[in-house]
Description:
It is a single chain. By secondary structure, this protein is mostly helical. The protein has five helices and no strands. The chain starts with a helix and ends in a 5-residue tail after the last helix.
Amino acid sequence: xxxxxxxxxxxxxxxxxxxxxxxxxxxxxxxxxxxxxxxxxxxxxxxxxxxxxxxxxxxxxxxxxxxxxxxxxxxxxxxxxxxxxxxxxxxxxxxxxxxxxxxxxxxxxxxxxxxxxxxxxxxxxxxxxxxx
Length: 132
């Protein structure tokens, strides 16, 4: 009969239970040490988390840049349309009529919403960076 300490050491080296070494049980050996598996799992989870955060940040920057660009284009379009107007129907004059009394208002609202969403996503990601 082998020494108990040696059986325990062998079970740790081969990542099997002491029952597997001492008895004639058809148990399959464990594939790897639990500590190694935990480290690898934690590392993969951390890499996934960083990748997700990076993708959210890129998406936030995309929304911000696209929103500002479309917001600017909407204002320029309203200015160009205002030059063609001969009368206005709002208190804001020709430009206000061009912006608020036409389809340009919908683009103005969508571009403002995109810009706001981009800002909020970036604020969230930069404030909570590394806290998850």
